[in-house]
Amino acid sequence: MKQFTLPKSERLYLRESIGELFANGRTFVVFPYRVVYLLKKADAENLPDAEKQGRCAIMAVAPKKRFKHAVDRNHVKRLTREAYRVQKLPLHETLEKTGHSLEVAFLYVDNKFITFDQTYKLMGKAIGKLQRVIQTEAKKNETS
Questions:
Q1: Which of 53, 126, 36, 135 is nearest to 88 (CA)?
Q2: CB 57 within 8 A of CB 64
Q3: DSSP per position, 17-74
Q4: Among 143, 60, 36, 49, residue whose Cα is nearest residue 99
Q5: Domain 29-139 classified CATH 3.30.230?
Q6: 33-81: pLDDT as tens digits
Q7: Domain-by-domain residue ranges, the chain?
Q8: How far is CA 118 from CA 32, 39, 66, in A?
Q9: Whole-structure pTM over 0.90, yes or no?
Q10: Which of 1, 50, 75, 135 has the smallest C-beta neighbourhood within 10 Å, fewest atoms?
Q11: 3-state secondary structure (DSSP) of residue 99
């Protein structure tokens, strides 16, 4: 099914976008992930169609300080992306309803590996919290 893919348009890779995310983004922790997000109102006429329809771009980060071997870092990032990929639909629906776009970085902050089942549960919690943030931001914009 096409809905469970993670194409390049949904990945955060541009240096300028990443810099803006870490400079202006907000953060919360769902251990072992620190989630940095930047919510944008997609009402400008010069935004691409993907952002007007509720684009969500993500990146997974596993620091070299915690995992010395590249194979370990890649494993953690692969699990993170996979857990996000299979649970992203409610988040995308919320973004489309509210007309926002979102950039998210999932930073792994633990020294130990966790299983895919644990990653799946924690990613569900993180996505739920992101949905609540989007909904509260949309309500705040409606009242003002």
A1: 126
A2: no
A3: HHHHHHHH-EEEEETTEEEEEEEEE---TTS-HHHHT--EEEEEE--TTT--SHHHHH
A4: 49
A5: yes
A6: 999 999 998 755 445 554 445 689 999 999 999 999 999 999 999 999 9
A7: 29-139
A8: 10, 26, 19
A9: no
A10: 1
A11: coil
